[in-house]
Amino acid sequence: LHDPSLRGLRLIIGSPDGRSVVSSASYEARRYGVRSAMPVSQAIGLCPTARIVPPDFTKYRDASQKVMAIFEQVTPLVEPLSIDEAFLDVRGVRRLWGNPGRIGAMIRHRVHDEVGITCSVGIAATKHVAKMASTMAKPDGLLVVAAADTLDFLATKPVRAMWGVGPKTAESLESRGIRWIRDLRSTPESALARAVGPALAIRLRELALGKDPRAIETSRVEKS
Questions:
Q1: Nearest-CA neighbor of 30 among 16, 53, 13?
Q2: Residue 163 has what DSSP assignment?
Q3: Which of 28, 72, 79, 85 is catalytic?
Q4: 85 assigned to active site
Q5: Lowest CB count within 10 Å: 45, 67, 166, 219, which one?
Q6: Which strands sit side by side in the sheet containing 24-25, from one edge to the other?
Q7: pTM (2 decimals)?
């Protein structure tokens, strides 16, 4: 946004200091395997032609505040997850703005027109599925998963796509042949418990069945 000459380039956002980590990367660099939190030295090894750009968190916070202000003009039920992500509960504002798909499209247009950046929107009946849908909609799209389609949507997705399943948990599941979310539904709870522990086993089974009772927490304190 602030330097249009950088558009379309392979970018690593971070310090050139070899001990630093990647804050973010352009999608052109991500195609080479560059990821956030990766050591910059490793990222350069994966994508030697990438350009390293130092982060500017003052600009990031300014853009974030503008985007969050748009969200809050749509609904008071906004839960920021990080500087660039939030959940919105739009059930109570459908008469004002239209169905969730129209609301999502409106938000995307407003963010583009008023802030100058793109955003991806996932719409679903639960926070977990909405988070997965937004990831699938990246880098600049909108995906709606109707409540009636939730189980079918989840069935064909890998366990790694689940919100909260990290690499170690995924490896533990995959080593036991549990590769897809549909596999979680058919695996005995005792077997899941041996793989990931009893508490997480119950949680994953519920999410695999499309159950996620978590509500929007507007008073959540951002820790990162």
A1: 13
A2: T
A3: 85
A4: yes
A5: 219
A6: 24-25, 11-13, 51-53
A7: 0.89
